[in-house]
Amino acid sequence: MIALYLLILVDSISVSVVIPLLGPLLIDPETQVFLIGSPLPLRSFVSGLLMAAYVFPMLYMAPVLGRLSDQLGRRTVLLGCGIGVLLGNLLAGAAIEEQGLALLILGRLVGGATAAAQPTAQAALVDMGTNKARHLSFSLLSSSLGFVIGPVVASSLSSYSLAGPFYFCAVLTALAVVLLLLTYRDAPVRRRRVDWSAISIFEGVRCFRDAATDEAVRGILACFVLMQVAWGSYFVFVSVFLMEGASLDLSLHQVGIFMSVMGVGFCLANGLVQPFLARFFRMRTLAVLGLALNAAAMLVCLVLVRPYQEYAMALVAGVTVNIAYPSIVTMLSDRVTGERQGWILGMVGSAAAMGWGVSSLLSGALGGLGHALPIVLAAALMAMAALAMLSAGSQWSDPAESLPQKPL
């Protein structure tokens, strides 16, 4: 189990470690590594492209890897993915040292495609058959902690080398691979020959076609996609704004603290705040509350003038987005029958990946016109999601939804 949790952790670290480095690598003239002398709009777009190159492959590869793990066994797929994440981080580190942008994009593509093994690692934990709820809870905690550790690693090691954070991720991934080799054995599968007819690389996007014809989920899912585009735009580009566009001009170390505090907010919301509020409020109410407060937190971030104020707002942003996220997912889950839970939860993962990919490209294009524009766009989209959820009223309330356990 340690090997599986570690693989989930390092996948999340590999996603978040690059975010505080986007400014130093592409935007800040004093530390700029890539596209020196190029106009800001191009450099900003490439910043978004680096995130999209990691997220979009996850959208396409997660269903493929899941199918493969059913036929070949979890261990084979997890080992292959661990080696892929290791290679992706090594390529990214070498690209920074050699100033090779194409190599960096290739490393992010390889890492993103193989980081899609997180669902396979969760399936391996479920296969163990004991205390499934606890295993899944710890896997989500591992993923959340990755978003805390990643920025800390980036801000701590980048003072020695901008490539250092990626080499750290490579070492951590190598440790996970070794632990998998030594400790993890899955049950033998009867069929070792892959049935390629059951595997489609487009499975991650075909689910949206199915959702469009399902009245029970399409409206809520549309709000969820809008939320993911908004949050992806904010999460990826707030570090660039704080270092280059804000009046307080935070250092890379301070931005690392900001991102880590936000990660602490993720953990607090998932472990304490949202479960507590769910005792008193319906899921739709929590979704509207979280979305609206998150939009407000984004706007407040634009006008603060002290680092500690930004840290406090990072905590608010992390908590509020994770009040909305599980509430919307619960709404989607409650609106389908038990035999369709896998379908709806798979669609949630695909929607999140698509939203982050779209937001990375869109906000990267806007960032070249002004570092605050991606944040403004994110706040506007998050507010739109809140208004859509609020205006839908009772038509999105599941008639089978239970009343809160206690009156407020």
Structure description:
Helices cover 75% and strands 0% of the residues. It has two domains: 1-184, Growth Hormone, Chain: A, CATH 1.20.1250; 208-394, Growth Hormone, Chain: A (Up-down Bundle), CATH 1.20.1250.20. Residues 399-408 have low confidence and may be disordered. The longest helix is centred in the first third of the chain and has 33 residues, at 40-72. Helix 3 runs antiparallel to helix 14 (341-367) and helix 12 runs antiparallel to helix 13 (307-334). The chain has 15 helices and no strands. With 408 residues, it is mainly alpha-helical.
Q: So how many helices?
A: 15
End-to-end separation: 40 Å
Q: CATH topology of the largest domain, anyone?
A: Growth Hormone, Chain: A
- CATH class categorisation of the largest domain: Mainly Alpha
What is the molecular shape? globular
Spans of at least 5 consecutive residues with low confidence: 399-408
The helix/strand order is: HHHHHHHHHHHHHHH
Percent of residues in helices comes to over 70%
Q: Please indicate the count of domains.
A: 2
For the secondary structure, the number of strands is 0
Mean pLDDT value: 82
CATH architecture designation of the largest domain: Up-down Bundle
**Computed Rg:** 21 Å
Quote the beta fraction. Answer: under 5%
CATH superfamily of the largest domain: MFS general substrate transporter like domains
What structural category arises from helix and sheet content? mainly alpha
The largest β sheet comes out as: none
